[in-house]
Write a structure and sequence with these properties.
It is built from 8 helices and 13 strands. By secondary structure, the protein is an alpha/beta fold. The protein has 2 domains: about 120 residues, Response regulator (Rossmann fold), CATH 3.40.50.2300; about 100 residues, Winged helix-like DNA-binding domain superfamily/Winged helix DNA-binding domain (Arc Repressor Mutant, subunit A). α2 packs parallel to α3, α6 crosses α8 and α7 packs across α8. Keywords: DNA-binding, Phosphoprotein. Pfam families: Response_reg, Trans_reg_C. One of its GO terms (cellular component) is cytosol.
Length: about 220
């Protein structure tokens, strides 16, 4: 997933960026309302984490602003105080959940998974196509009765492609899903990743094909067994 982190505590934001990257997410980190608002309007984020207290303003105002602009990104708000007022105003501003500092990183990851499950895009905890069973919460992939090991980035690519259903995923869109704004990436990097994923599916005997459509993008579809 592509995740936006808006946090002015460098130690915390750095720790979040490392942990989220480890589990396969592309992460953009900003410390100010102005920078985050600009990024939010140009990048296709799947989730966002926003602290209430920022260098140049209030995270609640940021969330309220992007909601007014029509952006519905599921948002987890961070607060340093366990006070009902902070929680209520954050939720009223448009946040979907909140977490009080200090917190365990694994709890944050669990809350992000819950937010993702509640988003309109998801209808089941497990996703199937052909003889492929993908569990985004673990994550894990089973082809028939065989467990297939993927890298974090390969899981991220599979997640995007399987959720697209019968829609084509443009190469640029897939790249933006896999890489953060500060990361240099190329079409070749995306092609190499897709090639590895396709090879693993073929070797496992998947009854799906990951097809590249020249000039259009990629699609994952079921084939005959």
């Amino acid at each position: 997933m592509r995740i936006l982190v808006v946090e002015n505590d460098r130690l915390l934001s750095g720790a979040l960026e490392r942990r989220l990257t480890e589990v396969g997410h592309a992460v953009d980190v900003f410390a100010t309302v102005a920078d985050a608002e600009a990024a939010w309007k140009i990048a296709p984020y799947d989730l966002s984490i926003v602290d209430i207290m920022l260098d140049d303003g209030d995270g609640r105002s940021l969330v309220r602003s992007v909601r007014a602009a029509g952006l519905r990104t599921p948002t987890l708000m961070l607060t340093a105080r366990d006070e009902i007022g902070d929680r209520v105003t954050g939720l009223d501003a448009g946040a979907d959940d909140y977490l009080v500092k200090p917190f365990a990183t694994e709890e944050l990851l669990a809350r992000l998974r819950a937010l993702r499950r509640r988003s309109a895009e998801i209808t089941a905890s497990e996703l199937r196509i052909g003889n492929l069973l993908y569990d985004p919460q673990t994550p894990s992939l089973t082809v028939g009765d065989q467990v297939v090991r993927l890298t974090a980035q390969e899981y991220a690519a599979l997640d995007k492609l399987i959720r697209a259903g019968e829609r084509i995923t443009p190469k640029r869109m897939l790249g933006e899903h896999l890489y953060a704004l500060h990361q240099d990436w190329s079409d070749n990097a995306v092609e190499t990743l897709v090639h590895r994923l396709r090879r693993k599916l073929l070797e496992a005997g998947a009854t799906v094909e990951l097809k590249a459509l020249r000039g259009l993008g990629y699609i994952l579809y079921e084939t005959e067994a």
